[in-house]
Amino acid sequence: MATCSIEAGGGAGIKAGNVLCVTDLSQHAERPLEFAFQAADKCGVNLELIHVVDLSRAPSTPDAQVDIQFNLESLAKRLKTVNRIVTATLLFGCPEKAIAKRANDSNAALIAFTSGGGQSAVSRQILMARIRSRVTCPVIDLSYPKPSQHRVIRNLVLLPTGSGQ
User: What is the pLDDT of residue 139?
Assistant: First the structure.
């Protein structure tokens, strides 16, 4: 059984597949996003950056959507390596439903929230609990409003899918 341990926090066994990183694109989200990328890279899985525009809460113009897509793609390009694919996906609608649908459609191995403080910790935890009820993969929170409050994850183990492992 092949596993990949990374030195950086709590131990979780995760079947290998894409890691979905939900981001608000803030500067404070970059540090936890880098950790999520390192985990995906060391364990041989791809990373998909996700940002959700909830049009019912924050009306968005086409220009704003283009800016968000550009920022997502720029971030993905910065994180991309020779051996690792990093994609950017802009979703629209209810965040709970959009993220869960994307995770299920892509057979995600993990959903990592890497927001920098755009929403309160309580509302983020409620959203994550709702998503957990809709998906089969783990949902973790790497978000903290200030870089000084980022926690360190010691061990994250990703297990390859298939062959009954």
Answer: 92
- Domains along the sequence of the chain with CATH: 9-159 (3.40.50.620)
The residue assigned the tokens 């990373």 is: 47
- For tokens 């959700």, name the residue: 52
Sign of CA dihedral 32, 108, 75, 67: negative
- pLDDT the model gives residue 34: 79
3-state helix, strand, coil in the chain (%, to 5): 35, 25, 40
Helix axis angle, 95-105 to 121-132, nearest 10°: 40
Whether the CB-CB separation of 53 and 65 falls below 8 Å is answered with yes
Is 131:100 a contact under the CB 8 Å cutoff? yes
Taking residues 122-141, report their average pLDDT: 91
Q: In whole numbers, what is the pLDDT of the chain averaged over residues?
A: 75
